[in-house]
User: What shape does this take?
Amino acid sequence: MRKSMLFGFLLVFLGLGLPGSQGKVIPCDLVKILRQHGFEDLGKTVADWICVVKHESSYNTKAFHDNGVSRDYGIFQINSQYWCEDGKTHGSKNVCHISCSKFQDDNNEDDIQCAKNIAHEANGLSP
Assistant: This one.
């Protein structure tokens, strides 16, 4: 009985510790990830970035919003008009040189790199 409880606890613990598991990122894990990727040096605090993610996607890595002429993808809700290519947005600039669908998987590395590009181009987040 004791071994099975320990095993069950371990499975729950590992499941909670995987950023992006089941399409959601756990906020505490996201803080660590953003710090590791230097988001504190982008003009705003990591807390500001966490607020952006919470309000844009509710931490959902598979988030999608159709704006009519363009669409927003992934945890940062990166827009297809300028930042990525979705095959539907006429005149997309694709500044991040990536398919928008890559922002809807559980690998957040490409999302993070594009968000950093956006922050650099915009000189950080603006209110």
User: Anything to note?
Assistant: The chain has four helices and three strands. The beta strands are 64-66, 71-73, 78-79. The first strand starts at residue 64 and ends at 66.
